[in-house]
Structure formats: structure tokens, C-alpha cells
Amino acid sequence: MELLNSTNENVEVFDLLKDSLTKEHLEEILSFLEMKPSELIRKKDTFFKENYGDKSYTEDEYLEIMLNNPRLIERPIVVKGKKAIIGRPIELIADFLKK
Fold first, then answer.
1. What is the DSSP letter of 70?
2. What gap in Å lies between CA 67 and CA 80, rounded to an integer?
3. C-alpha span between 47 and 83 (Å, rounded)
4. Which residue, of 6, 42, 88, 95, has the greatest Cβ tally within 10 A?
5. Which residues lie closer than 8 Å to 79 by C-beta, 6 or more apart?
6. Which residues, 6 or more positions from 93, have their beta carbon under 8 angstroms from its beta carbon?
7. Three state DSSP letters for 2-52
8. What confidence tens digit (pLDDT) does each residue in 5-16 have?
9. What CATH number does residue 20 fall under?
């Protein structure tokens, strides 16, 4: 967060765990990331494993799982204009903001 606050760049900061997330907003973020829901969900997370197991899901089902359990969304996500990245490691954020 410090890195984002110290820059003059126009970036969107959205706390996925505190702010409500709509389906439309999540779909928009996915398009900015150029990712499918199955690529953004944290499948190795203990909560995912315990509640969703090894079953196969459609992309729409992954989207619904993330909407109902935002903690399963990879984060942090940094959005700048119509582009976005998952900001790990933190060096990716600095490089992304320079572009």
C-alpha cells in the first residue's frame, strides 16, 4: 500500500475482503488481468480444499465461488486504466506503474 500511496499514478485500490464485490466488477477485473476465473482463484488455499475439494468446476462456477468467498481471490490486484496485475512479488507493482 505504501508503494501505491507514494506514486502519482492513478491506480484503483479495492480491498476485496472488506468492500463488496459485484459480478460485473469481478468480470471487469478478470478482463483487465486477461485471466479466467480458474486462474485467479486460490485453489491451494486450505479453505478451498476443505470446501470445494478436487472437483472440477466451470468458469462460471469459479466466478460464483470467488464472489461468495472473496478470500479465495489472488491478491493484491493493482488496476491502472484498463490493465491490471497480481502484485506479487511487490517488485511487479513498481514495474507495472512505470508503464
1. G
2. 22
3. 29
4. 42
5. 11, 12, 14, 29, 32
6. 3, 4, 76, 78, 85, 87
7. HHHHCCCCCCECCCCCCCCCCHHHHHHHHHHHCCCHHHHECCCCHHHHHHH
8. 555 566 666 678
9. 3.40.30.10
**pLDDT tens digits along 27-76:** 999 999 999 999 999 999 999 999 998 899 999 999 999 999 999 999 88
Q: Round to whole Å and give the CA distance between 2 and 53.
A: 36
Q: How far apart are CA 85 and CA 77, in angstroms?
A: 6
Take residue 61 and report the three cell numbers written for it.
462456477
Domain range for 16 is: 2-98
Domain count, the chain: 1
The C-alpha cell of 97 is what?
Answer: 506503474
Q: Residue count of the chain, please give it.
A: 99
